[in-house]
Amino acid sequence: MGWNIGVSRTLPYSAETVWDFLVSREGVAIWLGPGVDLPREPGVEYETANGTVGEIRSFTEGDRVRLTWRPSDWDHDSTVQVRLSGAGAKTTLRFHQEWLAGAEEREEQRAYWQDVTERVVAALAER
């Protein structure tokens, strides 16, 4: 199990704007799952309303969060990192997921993170 996937998009917003949305309850519901506040301390576990579980590995305010991620129908953990980079009015949002079971799961997760990115873009545009 060593497959990974990365999806990124440059957004026309400051890093602060994107970060504030991503860690808000509305943003977390889009990328992590509904019904949970994002823990900010390493070692803290979470469980979403749809049964995804994991643990925070690192949290760097305004920059990145790294966590384990296991949907209810998976038999293994993966690691997800959400990271921002950029300056001024443009920010690159990156989702990177490691420890996927194989090529099929990688393609499923590529589609998942692309959809998540589209939903984040749409939500930011409505703000």
UniProtKB/TrEMBL annotation:
Superkingdom of source: Bacteria
Signal peptide: none
Record domain Activator of Hsp90 ATPase homologue 1/2-like C-terminal: where: 13-123
Family: Belongs to the AHA1 family.
Record's protein name: Activator of Hsp90 ATPase homologue 1/2-like C-terminal domain-containing protein
Organism: Amycolatopsis vancoresmycina DSM 44592
